[in-house]
Amino acid sequence: MIPPILRQTSALILARRQPEYRRFLHTRIDFGEQLIGIKGARGCGKTTVLLQHAQSCGLEASRILYIACDHPAMVDVDLYALAQTFYQEGGQLLLIDEIHKRKGFAVHLKAIRDTFDLQVIFSGSSALRLEHELADLSRRAVVHELPVLSLREFMEIETGQRFAAYALPDILANHANLAANVMQTLRPIEQFKKYLRYGAYPFYRESLDNYTSKLLEVINLTIDSDLASLYSIASDKLDKLKKLLYMLCSTDPVELNISKLSTGVGTSWPTLSRYLDSMSAGSLVHIVRGGSGMRTVNKPDKLLLDNTNLFYALCASPNVGSLRESFFVSQLGYQHQVHYHDKGDFVVDERWVFEIGGAGKTLKQLANHPDGYAVVDDVVIGDGRRIPLWLFGMLY
Fold first, then answer.
1. Which residue has the higher pLDDT, 262 or 209?
2. Are 140 and 188 part of one and the same domain?
3. Does residue 97 lie in a domain region?
4. What is the DSSP string of 250-295?
């Protein structure tokens, strides 16, 4: 049986007007698959993707059911039984949001997939639980990751114009012409500065005045709800995670000093390491490890906040170097492997080496590296192997 409150809630949510702008993932998902998953950070727009598809798929509203696993009415509801009832009543599309809130969800999804001619699209925010559960789904589910907005997507939302996404090799080989193309439509640095402060999460459009408080709520919910329950972190330890975020916001992006970091947070390194893994899974931090051939691979070399908006939400004066590196890693990390490098700041896909800096950054440090590039901030258009930082926001 489907509780009436769930049917009513579904009807209300499906009737809401959704944003016209569709994120890049819409074109990458094969909506012909029977079981589709979307994972990503809180607030990145997963629910909107579900609902936009529901409104454009051509099905009658009665054949679509949207449920959120964190709804109070879902506490004692069996997912398989709910799907069976929905299917028997003529249902065709089942949307399941916040599925990481349901322990053992993979068993239910597997049974639903194997039993009913019913399409299921689910979303979840907590990566490690999703990865663990999804391993049990074998080849039954096609799972996509939705990152925060790219600078390109932000500019499309802000201007109503369309901008092409560029592959990394194209940016490296032809960055001056690509930058000039964008400059014909808008002022990239102006948009870039806005993006750094509030462009990573789609909900910025609801209210700029309340954006910081909503982002802080996302941070607190991720730590106090998602991570605390998933990793059984005691309530008195949660403040240590928040303290760590503040430390990353206000300090230089230097090589990790384990002793200093452990002392600053007030916990041992083994415990802190577990915390870091959980925060990485919750899309709060990037753990950037050393590339091949470098020393120890068991400990992170660099820690960065997941995206630049977190800096402005957490501290009044973000560290400029950390801000730049966070943007670079967040934009490249979705489609590429990014590691720490002993000569430059980062090595991408074990090939290209990048040194990040301000407008005066030169290639001196990477002069003898054939695939070495300087990534420069506050520059609209680059020259040679000096590439504007903002242009790396055009990758997806």
1. 209
2. no
3. yes
4. HS--PPP-HHHHHHHHTS-HHHHHHHHHHHHHTTSEEEE-B-TTSS
